[in-house]
Amino acid sequence: MSAITTPLPEIPGSSALPYKGRVGMACLIIAESAIFTIFVVAYLYYIGKSLTGPTPREVLETPIFFTVCLLSSSLTIHLASKLLDRGKRGAFLALWFLTIVLGALFMYGTAREWHRLIYEHGLTISTNLFGTTYYSLVGLHAAHVTVGLLMLTIVLLFGLEGRVGREQSARIDVLSMYWHFVDAVWVVVFTVVYVLGR
Amino acid sequence: MSSDAMAIHQGTDVGSRPWVETLHGWVTTVDHKRLGILYILYALLFLAVAGSEAMIIRIQLMYPHNSFVSPQVFNRIFTMHGTTMVFFVGIPVLFGLANYLVPLMIGARDMAFPRLNAFSFWLTALGGFLLYFSFLGGSGLYGAGNAPDVGWWAYAPLTSRAFSPGHSSDYWTISLLVAGFGSIGTAINIIATILCMRCPGMKLSRMPLLVWLNLVVSGMVLIAITPLSAAQIMLCVDRYLGGHFFDTQAGGSAALWMHFFWIFGHPEVYILILPAFAVLSEVIPVFSRKPMFGYPVMVGATIAIGFISMSVWAHHMFSIGMSSYGNAFFVLTTMAIAVPTGIKIFNWLGTMWGGRIIFKTPMLFCIGFLFNFLIAGLTGIMLGSAAFNWQLTGSYFVVAHFHYTLSGSFLFGIFAAFYYWHPKITGRMLGERLGKLHFWLFFIGFHVCFDLMHIPGLLGMARRIYTYEPGRGWDTLNLLISIGAFIQGIATLIFVANLIISYFKGAKAGNDPWDAWTLEWSVSSPPPAYNFASIPTVASRRPLWDLKHPEDPDSRYE
Q1: The domain containing residue B431 runs over which residues?
Q2: How much of chain A is in helix, strand and coil states, percent to nearest 5?
Q3: CB contact under 8 A, A125 and B241
């Protein structure tokens, strides 16, 4: 090897670079936002364009309780990761578990709503445009909640084995970014489907 | 780097090991350089496939009433040609170059997420496989081969069950969905690498322009490929679950698909052309022996292109009957995007101005690019005007325009990249004589083919037709266009021959055959698995200039 690979002129290292996990998750969130945007645009565009019933006004009920569950899970996961930062692993696990319970409650709410729509009102994804857009948008969000719940559960299992400590708190932060995103998307979906859509 | 390190690297090379182990090594690799090479080889394979499809199209259109292929086969061939060229040539080759070069240029040892990198590549590979498996599986085992025939834009209602029975459109959908997820993974990886893995001193304002442009491209991938993924999910819902997104019989809208497709489709052409810009921004300074002219303006223009390209999509849809306000908006944004693009052309010319230009093959391709891209931009502005567009949309004029951007510009940039970085990737120079022959043949073939193609378009020849009546003034032109296409085919064969011959017999390159200035030339050719024995520290935009000219370093002036 020639002289070219001798160390280049030394310059004191510049400011610290960001953590790659956070940057990666931020990028994923940007990409996911674009996907949700397209589904939301389709939903808004097709409001009131269904040729047959049932219509949103007839069949949708606002899921206030389950919305509160999901949104408050953002708070619990935030507190949980703060506690992990301070090394309080027991309290972290308790709040983490509470987050999963709140997320699961939300999923139960979605399941109940879908069951009611399908069996009482006969609304399926192929019934009309409302059905197509409603199940796609809410289903896309529910799929993201499910993925989030799976990841939260994996962390919980590791935590119960005592393997989640302060060293992992950067990674836990990345996961909670995803969970906050899922909650934020619900605010948009809720507004579009249950407020504007009726 | 010490000789020990070299020996370790040599030890991991092919040679004495059984081929199964070598293969296993390549399949399970997470090394950004190997994945970059895999991406590029994969793109070359599909370039050959899609190029052959182009030849079939041109043979069919050589004479009026030709019956080389049936109308049905013709539809499949042009669909596969377009889809393959965009998704399985363009995107893999740009990600291949980014994968290989970005970590080397910013002084990193690998990408931020090596395993995500491998996963993304294999997703893209699966996508290409699925697309071509449709030839076998498109109609189950009944049909004798049924590839998608809905065009690469797949407008509704062509894709509805009634007009696209069997599974051919589903292979198209799933293939692009899978490849799209692969693209998103790689884009995330590139952004994280650039933002988090730069070596000491590599400030954003000192990054090579190739890195800057790939940062912008990856950002565009994040928000432009995803609408396509969303639309593909909707199409799957329509086709498999009986949804009505694009079903006009149930109140759905065919125009919505067009919007969703082109929200992806137009940024996509900038996603393809920006990496070619990136190559020019590295090659032109080195072969003009001058630093890049107007570096900050180049960065700004790139970001401007990234933003504006998100708001021009409906200039593909002037003929569907938008309001005059809609038309005016998209005309204005389309005109606006010509400004940063023009700035770039002037900056490259400014770099060449007064330089000692070395006319080696990479530089020839770059100069050819400038020439072709200028004309591509001018016809683009013509088509961007709604009134003109109404006359010529769906004609061969449009085909000529976008082949000027993709073949005459994107492909020229990629060829320049091959000649420039081949020594770094393989350790051997690409043959200069065959290279010059490749350039001139391709350049002449390109202009015979695509200059003339504008004329039948102006005379009214429609796109996508499988044949035409004699005596409309198109006959001779089409024959000449086909001859131009064959010349390009021969030139590409020469390029492939050059790749193979140079791989075995090319002159040894050494570390820095072009006397260049960016970090990748500071390591051996090919670089060792860990890239840098010790992480470099940079003080200017041209670290190797500083090293070679300690008496007059760039860092003094930046």
Answers
A1: 26-556
A2: 75, 0, 25
A3: yes
